[in-house]
Amino acid sequence: MKIAIRLVIVIVMAMAGTWLWSVLFPTPQHVIRARLNEFARDASFTSSQSTLAGYLSAQTVGQFFSTNVEVTLNLPGNPEFIVSGRDQIVQSMIQAHAAVSELEVDFPDLNVTLAPDQNTATADLTIRAQIDGERNSLAEEMKFTLQKIGGQWLITHIESVQVLT
Amino acid sequence: MSLKPDNSSPSPPPLPPGSPNSRSWLRVIVIGRNWKLTLCRTLVWAVLCIIIFRVALVRVEVIGFSMLPTCPEHSKYWVNRCAYLWHEPQRGDIVAIRLAGIHEMLLKRIIGLPGETVAFSDGQVLINGAVLKEPYETNSCDWEQPPEALTNDEYYVVGDNRTMPAQDHTHGRCPGYRIIGKILK
User: Fold this and answer.
1) Taken in order A41, A109, B114, B129, is the CA torsion positive or negative?
2) A54, A65, B8, B176: which has the highest count of C-beta atoms within 10 A?
């Protein structure tokens, strides 16, 4: 019985140690995942948000992108959507605030791959969006390219992935 | 002659609640007579449940109407992820197709197998030029699509609801690695 208790204590301590290590010294993959989830939270807004709050929120979302970001989306049933530059992203977000009353974004699946140079990464993810409370208005696979600029991981490129061709 | 109570073998007095003996039956119910055996049994059940409900089967809820009338919206199914361990996906199978992971998937029916040519003519599916009989397809369809050749690792998937225009219906060639499993109906 004593051995079993000791074994359980050792396992619990090892798990706690691993968790603490990952909190204190997160890997770049962890940092990127956290940043993208933060991006999803900031890109979401509710109907109660004022126009000014929406404007400020769009500015906040812009900080996740590099200045020369490129977004190319080919969504089924929609024309190709291309946006270049951070300013256009912010403008698109402001327009989105005006066009829809509620948007909820999350990434239920998020796979991060770090390039050998440790300064570039790609995130293959599923983006799920609820527009105006409509359940699963959008669920698409996308590929985000991120680059470490000034100590921060910024999105430099977004493209949609064609699951069925 | 008078009768006196026999005090030579007195019955044990009732145990007060909370005494060690009154707790023993509770212990037997909770952890069994042999705690080691109970622990092993619990671990085996836990591992089995994890394998079955996390690895082998995935619960999905249908969102959308591309698989009507076979799979109505909000209906729930299990996807058998082990279905294609021993054989390749078959024509007519309803399969789950993963996006970046398995939290969001597409639910489609396989109509074309690797190496075949798939086309739509007047709403009918043509496989290598021959009409495919689809008993599950009850709705009218007017799709026209030129022949598409599938590679050796591609399947052609489409929903059962083809009443909508083809450009609004997500369908096409799907690489084999994206097929997660077959739904259990």
Assistant:
1) negative
2) A65
